[in-house]
Amino acid sequence: MSDEAVPDLRGYEDTDLGVEIPALNRGEAWLVSECAGLQFYAYGRRDDLTGERIMPRLGDRLHLVRVPDNQHDANAVEVWWRNAHQIGHLPRNAAGDVAPLLDAGAAARAYVIGEGDGEAWSLRLIVVGPAAEPLYAAHIERVAYRATLPVRNEKRERRLRRRAERFADQLQARRVARVAQAVETLLAVPFEPDLPDVGTEVDVDHVARLLACSRSTVARLAKRVGIVVGRYTWRVPLTREFDAEIRAWCRAPRSRLDPDSVRAPRIGCESPRVFRRPFGLAQAAKAWTSAWA
């Protein structure tokens, strides 16, 4: 069968098949099939009376003859040309659908749509009429399926992309949660900073880098021991009290983790352009819940 709802019969207008063009354009049922058994019958041989080679031409009318008493197939449908030469029969699968309708009185008109070259399975025929309805209906269903395939593929691709994005967010949420858990664990672990000797002056920004904290935190620690750190104060004396205050702060648990401060790298294959944005703990929690929605 072709991939179209109506067979392309351009060039058949002046043949026997040409009379079927209006009916086919109106939606008459049809099917195209190979002719089986060509090598066992008269196809390709010489006519005993005329000496002409028995080769039906494009558009020639064929006749379908039911043979219910066939010993090999009760659905056998023979194919005859000019009512004088049996050239083959319908393949078993096509005959199985056509034969019951022929027995019920449904019409079936057959024509040559591919004349072949004298070899087996080379001739193709078209059957027009109600007897072709089952195979025609299946063919139209396939045509409709192929016609809507691009739209369905696009919808499926969007659905799979959304599913992949949700799963990528879910994986990222797990990574962020693991990083946050590790950071919270490390925040509770005391550490000893490598401070300069007591009595020397220290750079406020240098101390902030040593403690992995902000400049304002260093200023707050200094204020507790009476050292004022102003906006433009760059260096302060490291007194014994200031040193002790810093070390006590390092031994104490840190403050509560800021969820938006947690970052986790994305794996390359999980990084479409739409996700090239900061991904903190708050976004991770949202992604975790939406991934299972």
Automatic annotation (TrEMBL):
GO MF, one annotated term = hydrolase activity, acting on acid anhydrides, in phosphorus-containing anhydrides
The organism's superkingdom is given as: Bacteria
Keyword annotations:
Hydrolase, Metal-binding
Q: Which Pfam families match?
A: HIRAN (PF08797)
InterPro entries membership: HIRAN
Q: Where is the HIRAN domain?
A: 44-134
The record, for Gene3D superfamilies, names: 3.30.70.2330
User: What name appears for this protein in its UniProt entry?
Assistant: HIRAN domain-containing protein
Species whose genome carries this gene: Methylobacterium phyllostachyos
